[in-house]
Amino acid sequence: MQNLASRRPGERRFSAGLTLIELVVVLCIIAVMSVFLLNRLRYYQEAAEKAAMEGNVGALKSALQLRVAAMLMKGEERKIPTLASANPVEWLAEPPRGYQGEFRAPKPAVPRGSWYFDATGKELVYVPGLDDHLERLADGSKRLRFRVRLELDPTDPDSKSAVFTAIRMEPVMPYRWF
Description:
Elements: H1 20-74, E1 99-103, E2 114-118, E3 123-127, E4 144-152, E5 164-171
Parallel strand pairs: 1-2
Antiparallel strand pairs: 2-3, 3-4, 4-5
């Protein structure tokens, strides 16, 4: 051990700590890495939201097919076209997370990340919470709209007792998310 008094003038003492400049550089690197990390996390949150929304639409499609099958089993084929104007959320055991209810207003003020049924247009609408990677639709909005559509027999489209050939739930306007 060397005594402080025995140190020669001009002799430098080395310490094991960081200098102020080294500390600033390390903090800057951590800040830049944090920005990239948060950006990537937001990307994955949006991808998860899209997957959840598509899962809900898949559940609604399955519920529609089960409803049609039940009507066919009971011999209620004539009631099947009424499904095109019904609220599809009623076919589920419980509504999807964030479901706000039925509205008659064209664009009600609902929180982002929620569903609602547009009773006037007979459409189920999803308002995304994160929509950075969702392209604007043809109408300029980012609200995804789904409708139950009947396909009628093309051989006799004017007949009052037209026979439907298919029923499906599909987007009103095609969308591109990611």
